[in-house]
Structures are given as structure tokens and as C-alpha cells.
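Page 42, continued from yesterday. The earlier attempt failed because a stray header line got pasted into the input along with the sequence. Redoing it now with the clean sequence only.
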Amino acid sequence: MKAFFTQPIGQLARQNALGFIGCNLYLIVINFGSFDSVEAVDKIFNFAWGFTLLALIIAGYNLVEDQVPEYWRMATGILAAVIITGTLIELAIPEFQENGFVPMYFLWAFNSLTYSLTNRGTGVFRPIYENLSILGFLSILIGTGANIFFDYTPPESIQPIFGIGWIAMVIGLGYGSYVAWGDKMSSSTE
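This time it went through. C-alpha cells are written below.
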């Protein structure tokens, strides 16, 4: 058990990237499909989503530490704390269980868009995953920003556009991180 919790950051990040993809697949199927879900299972997947995202955010600094200033280490820790706190708020407070804790998603999308744009073209992430991440975070930022600043919820007829953005984010961040860590680990062993 100790080896699992003390494994190298690259292995931890890759495992959590796969977990993040798995959690999002479940949540996408449940939210966009016409399937009934079990509340307890939904809560477990929501918690796992927050935990895997927390790990990806923390590991993200180690992935790009040569490209960004040192204070990004603290900023990623703060963002990770916001994600896990927001996830716990979603699980504990009934009114947030339906639509989520929107300010958390806005802050996450804003910071992640900045992260993606800052690291664009550095060679850490492959261009396809950079572009998918940017598209995904931009759509999340627009959707959550409209809700927070203008109290506007986009009509259901255009909700699938945001679903496409979410899927782009899952592939860009989830699989993009998995591949980037694989590239970094293989280049460090050569």
C-alpha cells in the first residue's frame, strides 16, 4: 500500500488521467443519456472525479516546471484545494447536486485555459491535445461565466455544444496528460 501512495509523480498522474477519463465517461453517459442512476454511485464518481482532477492539477506543475515560474507550484496547489472543496460542497449540499458548484468550474476553466495557452507550443503537450483542451476550457468558461455573471442558462437546444466542449476537455486534459507524462517518462529514461 505504501508503494501506491509514494509512487513517482508520472505514474500517479497517468493513473489519475485514466481515472479522470473513466469518471467523465460515466458522468457523460448518465447526464446525456437517458439512463437512470443510483445517487450513491453518482456521488462516488463525483468524488473520484474531483480527486483525479486534483491529482492532475498538482502533477501538472511537475510536467511543465521548466516552462513556468516557481509560483505556479503554489497556484496549482490552491486550485487543487478549490477543486476538492468544491467537489465536497457538491456532494454535501443538495442544491448543488443537480447543477454543480458553478464557481468552481468557472475558476478551474479560467485557470486551465491560462495554463493551456501559456504552455502552448512548448512541446510538453502534443498540439491536438492542446487544441482540444483549449476548446473544452473555453466552452466551460463561456457556459459557467454566462451563469455566474449574467444569470443566464443557455437553452437546452444548444446544450449539446457544451457537451462537445466537455468531451474535448476530457480528451485534451485526460488523455493529453496521460500521453505527455508517458513522453516525459520515456525521454527521462533514455
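Notes: The mean pLDDT is 88.
Reminder to self: strip header lines before submitting.
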